[in-house]
Amino acid sequence: METPRDPESRLEPTDWIGCIDLLEFAVPHSRKPRGLTLRLYRLPIALYRLGLGGLLGSRFLLLEHRGRRSGQTRYAVLEVVRRDAATGAYIVGSGFGEGSEWFLNLMADPHCHLQIGRRRFAVTARRLAQEESKRELLDYVRRHPRAAHAVVRIIGLDLNPSTPAGIDAFARAVPLLALERSSS
User: Fold this and answer.
1) pLDDT band for position 3 (cuts 50, 70, 90)
2) How far, in Å, are 27, 39, 92 from residue 36 at the CA level?
3) Are 102 and 61 spatial neighbours (Cβ–Cβ below 8 Å)?
């Protein structure tokens, strides 16, 4: 007989976020991933290239953007914080802060493409203001408490994202962007 788990307990490998949680041991906290960890984080890109991006569901998207120095096409798979049904915008966050390459590239050139499953379209990135980010992250924590706590652990923050002070620190550490549909 299975015993009920405390919602604050460690995630099980069967949880959808479990695949990320299992990588936690290899992540150098609060630094960009490197080596084997980077390769593991980039595995979802291979799923999209094989036409299997739909397996990741609507909680993840493939971002196609331009390198700010090289001008080459770059890819990143990101978790969707929220999709705005009214505008069609996708809200995403940079878990490794303002130093993430994809984030820096979008700050230099906000025009990019995203793909969810087999749907692909042009978008323009807009950085959310701090208050807007706090509202989005508070909503995210309410909808996905386990995932929010896992993200906080993975990126090396020592806070409780369910508290006002925690949300404030979370929003300072994880910049959010709105990917809004564009005509190009």
Assistant:
1) very low
2) 10, 5, 24
3) no
Q: For residue 5, is it within any domain?
A: no
Q: What is the pTM of this model?
A: 0.77
**Eight-state DSSP code of residue 9:** S
Residue 159: strand, helix, or coil: coil
pLDDT higher than threshold 90 for residue 65: yes
- For 84-175, where are the E strands, in sequence order? 90-93, 111-116, 119-127
CB atoms < 10 A from the CB of 140, how many? Answer: 24
CATH number for 150: 2.30.110.10
Q: How many domains does the chain have?
A: 1
Q: How confident is the model at residue 33 (pLDDT cuts 50, 70, 90)?
A: low
Range of the structural domain that residue 129 is part of: 36-181
**8 A C-beta contact, residue 85 and residue 181:** no
What are the tokens at 7?
């919602």
Sign of CA dihedral 59, 171, 140, 145: positive
